[in-house]
Amino acid sequence: xxxxxxxxxxxxxxxxxxxxxxxxxxxxxxxxxxxxxxxxxxxxxxxxxxxxxxxxxxxxxxxxxxxxxxxxxxxxxxxxxxxxxxxxxxxxxxxxxxxxxxxxxxxxxxxxxxxxxxxxxxxxxxxxxxxxxxxxxxxxxxxxxxxxxxxxxxxxxxxxxxxxxxxxxxxxxxxxxxxxxxxxxxxxxxxxxxxxxxxxxxxxxxxxxxxxxxxxxxxxxxxxxxxxxxxxxxxxxxxxxxxxxxxxxxxx
Length: 252
Fold this sequence. Notes:
By secondary structure, the protein is of the alpha+beta class. It folds into two domains: 3-66, Orthogonal Bundle (Arc Repressor Mutant, subunit A), CATH 1.10.10; 71-249, 2-Layer Sandwich (Beta-Lactamase), CATH 3.30.450. Helix content is 45%, strand content 18%. It contains nine helices and eight strands. The strands form two sheets. Strands 5-4-3-8-7-6 form a six-stranded antiparallel sheet, with helices on both faces. Strands 1-2 form a two-stranded antiparallel sheet. Strand 7 and strand 8 form a beta hairpin. The radius of gyration is 20 Å and the shape is globular.
C-alpha cells in the first residue's frame, strides 16, 4: 500500500499494544516511549486513549493490558472455528501421542502460538500459551514454518535476524541454520534438540502449507525421550496424522 493509505497514528497505537509482553507486562508512559521509540507526548496520548477504550488499565504510574485485548484474538479464532474444529482434533491426537500439541503460524520474524491441546493428562507443559512468540530460527516450529517459505525469503530472514544464544547448543552459524531449514523442507518435518530450552527437543510438521496463513503442529519433550530414532519417527508419523486431519477440517 502507498504510505498515504496508512494511518501512522493507528500504527503507533498498535506498536504500543504490542510493547506489553512477557518481558514487560507493566510499564510507565516513559517506559512505553523508550521501548517503542515514540516521543513521550505521543506515547502519553496513545496510552490514555487505549485506557479509554478499555485495552489498558492504570494502577499507580503503571499501565498493563486488560482482558479486552483477547476480543481481538477471539474474533480470529472464532472465524476460523478453532474451538469447534481445531481444539477437538488437537486433544484427540494429544491423548494418542501423550504430549501437548501446539499450532503455530509465522508472525513477522517469530513463531506465534495460535492453538494448543488442553488435556491435563499429557506428560509435560513448558509454560507457553496461545499468543506466545517463540524464535523462528531456534525452535522446530519456527524452522518448519520457514521451510514452507521460498528459500530466497529464508536466506533474507536468516541474514537479518539477530542471533541469540538461548542455550549452549544454540546454532549461531547462519549457514548451518539454512541447511537445517532446507533439510526440514526435504523431510517434511523438523527436529531441534535443546537450542531454545536446555534438555528439550521440539518436533514440528506442516499442517497447512497452502493456506493464507501457513501453519505447523509441534510437540516438545525432554530430549531423553527421543534417544531412540524409532521413538522419534513414531511421534512424527502420529503428528502427520494430526496435521492431515487439521488440513482436511479446512479450519486453518
